[in-house]
Amino acid sequence: MLRAVVVAALLAVAAAAPARACDEAAKDQARHTGPRHGRAPWVIGDSTSILAAPILGRHGIEADAHGCRQFGVGVSMIAARPKHELGDAVVLALGANGPIQRSDIARARRVLGPHRFLGLVTPRNLSSSAGAMRAAAAAHPDTVLLIDWAAFSAGHGSWFAGDGLHVDESGAQAYAGLIREKLTPFLGIPLRLPAHADAPGVVACGKVRGFGRRSAVYVVRGADRVTCDRARQLIRGPRMRPPALWRYVDWESVGVGPWTDVLYRADKKVVVAGISVSS
Predict the structure, then answer these.
(1) Closest by alpha carbon to 44, among 121, 107, 158, 128?
(2) pLDDT by residue (tens digit) across 66-103?
(3) pTM confidence score
(4) Of 138, 246, 229, nearest to 185 (Cα)?
(5) Contact between 262 and 273 (Cβ < 8 Å)
(6) I want to staple 65 with a disulfide (CB 3.0 to 4.6 A). Which of 50, 80, 97, 215 is the partner?
(7) 275/72 Cα distance (integer angstroms)
(8) What are phi and psi of 246, to 5 degrees?
């Protein structure tokens, strides 16, 4: 009953005067639902994210939502947080309160640095903002994660209040679920890896440069099913858009051992891993 009252109140605010709507906010800390060793992904949102914040927290994702929040404010929030307190993935669920340009996204990427991932949630009401996000993801498939809420929610009018922007409870579940799915590489551990690169069965495949760093490449599982050439190609390739039937895991945020980046085939019979090296 209390949940229903809260939902009704927030939907009423969404339809109220803009000044009042801008005062609404919600925060939720991540609850670890499985083993994870790095900091949780962080979602910075506007009023669309308010009802979703506690759901994201239950999924192991930190969430901070505030009505009328501008994209530039979200970037400033990232800049203000000490680097050692940032996880490997930060999501900006912003862009509905004013058009954003690719230069705004470029600034967000600079603030995060070359070794972190920027997630972008497309707004439903500003096609220019959504277009800038899609263009950035296409240009930077190694570091920019597109969470296309505008496309995903198309045709689901029952998820929204009368303005077609602010979600109701069912919409909040769908919204949080989409973000959770896209952040899978940064949550939980889908497989076990040896604790050392010299473990039996692990095959060294040389070094490659990608993702702004140099990595030693290994076939950790299934050496009889994949070549070293293919392993190097996978580690060098765009992490946010792995090949069909492959999955990426940001191992620094979810696992133990020397591995930094892991790609595994969907059947888990082949696992390729990289270890960041200085030279």
Answers:
(1) 121
(2) 999 999 999 999 999 999 999 999 999 999 999 999 99
(3) 0.88
(4) 246
(5) yes
(6) 50
(7) 34
(8) -115, 150
Reference 22, options 65, 74, 52, 77; nearest CA is 65
> How do the domains of the chain map onto residue ranges?
2-186, 203-277
Burial-class residue 39 by CB neighbours within 10 Å (0-12, 13-18, 19+).
Answer: middle
Question: What are the phi and psi torsion angles at 127 (to 5°)?
Answer: -65, -30
Instruction: Supply the CATH classification number for the domain 2-186.
Output: 3.40.50.1110
- The Cα–Cα gap between 62 and 44 comes to 9
- Say which amino acid occupies 253: S
d(CA 153, CA 94): 16
Could you tell me the end-to-end alpha-carbon distance of the chain, in angstroms, rounded to an integer? 59
Both tokens of residue 181? 């799915």
